[in-house]
């Protein structure tokens, strides 16, 4: 198949493109260097090739407190990216099925994180702008399907982890930040200070599992929204303790800074719909996933630490 991927140079995009190429597909990967999606002309200048699938992964965001510091920019930039991509899809690629990324932070914290609640309630205030741009992306998919019968699949990932994360100095998602801080503590004696009291809970999905499940879902469903998670969440303290055991660092040396930003207290996706389509998704064991990720950190410590 001929496949276009936006956000192709990101953590997920890089892994997805490699996987699709290994399967023999013809891939065009877009990133901010070769196609600036904030400029509508850029994607319309791609040429006249027709695609079977479009994976829309591109988004302007980072982890940590990035969303707190850039709410206006996030709204403007991500709305441009999504609107220009959807406009091009409808005008030039109506034969293609579009697989788009939602975000778990679009869910309201006072409701179960279940697909039917994706557009209900209000997202957490600190992530509001980014969360709402992702809701608007999903609304766009629905609207274009209703009027033009375009085919789509919207997938909501839990936090992804595994080897191959960014090495460009940007803020890291919590699990990578935990690993980096604890390895620094082990190697250089630096203090390990974690944000919050460590009681906040998070869910992880190994990057390879996510991509395999997404591709399987593409084969069996369309015009739907589906969470992809492990269905299990653990406290930050649990993750930190396990990382300490793997790198042989004393967990009791960790300092928890309760004055710092922590985001949602709990974030675990309901996966009933996923299990309906794929009853046995075969998730990588957390300990194995962490060991592989830590091994990759050690192999790339010059860039990461």
UniProtKB/TrEMBL annotation:
InterPro entries named among the record's database cross-references: Epimerase_deHydtase (IPR001509), NAD(P)-bd_dom_sf (IPR036291)
NAD-dependent epimerase/dehydratase domain mapped to chain residues: 3-229
MF-aspect GO terms: GDP-L-fucose synthase activity
Domain of life where this protein originates: Bacteria
Annotated protein name in UniProt: GDP-L-fucose synthase
Source organism: Desulfosarcina ovata subsp. ovata
Organism classification: Bacteria, Pseudomonadati, Thermodesulfobacteriota, Desulfobacteria, Desulfobacterales
């Amino acid at each position: 198949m001929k496949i276009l991927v936006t956000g192709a140079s990101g953590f997920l995009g890089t892994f997805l493109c490699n996987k699709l190429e290994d399967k023999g597909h013809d891939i065009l990967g877009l990133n901010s260097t070769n196609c600036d999606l904030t400029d509508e002309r850029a994607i319309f200048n791609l040429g006249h090739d027709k695609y079977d699938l479009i994976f829309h992964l591109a988004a302007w965001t980072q982890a940590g407190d990035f969303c707190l510091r850039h709410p206006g920019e996030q709204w403007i930039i991500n709305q441009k990216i999504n609107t220009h991509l959807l406009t091009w899809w409808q005008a030039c690629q109506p034969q293609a099925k579009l697989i788009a990324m939602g975000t778990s932070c679009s869910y309201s914290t006072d409701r179960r994180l279940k697909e039917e609640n994706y557009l209900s309630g209000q997202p957490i205030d600190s992530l509001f702008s980014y969360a709402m741009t992702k809701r608007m992306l999903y609304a766009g998919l629905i609207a274009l399907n209703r009027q033009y019968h375009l085919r789509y699949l919207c997938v909501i990932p839990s936090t992804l982890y595994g080897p191959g994360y960014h090495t460009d100095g940007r803020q890291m998602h919590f699990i990578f930040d935990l690993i980096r801080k604890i390895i620094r503590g082990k190697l250089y004696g630096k203090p390990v200070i974690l944000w919050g009291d460590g009681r906040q809970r998070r869910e992880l999905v190994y990057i390879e599992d996510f991509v395999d499940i997404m591709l399987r879902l593409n084969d069996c469903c369309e015009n739907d929204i589906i969470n992809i998670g492990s269905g299990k969440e653990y406290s930050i303290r649990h993750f930190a303790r396990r990382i300490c055991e793997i790198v042989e660092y004393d967990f009791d040396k960790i300092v928890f800074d309760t004055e710092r930003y922590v985001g949602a207290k709990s974030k675990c996706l309901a996966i009933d719909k996923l299990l309906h389509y794929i009853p046995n998704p075969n998730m990588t064991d957390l300990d194995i996933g962490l060991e592989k990720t830590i091994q990759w950190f050690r192999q790339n410590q010059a860039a990461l630490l």
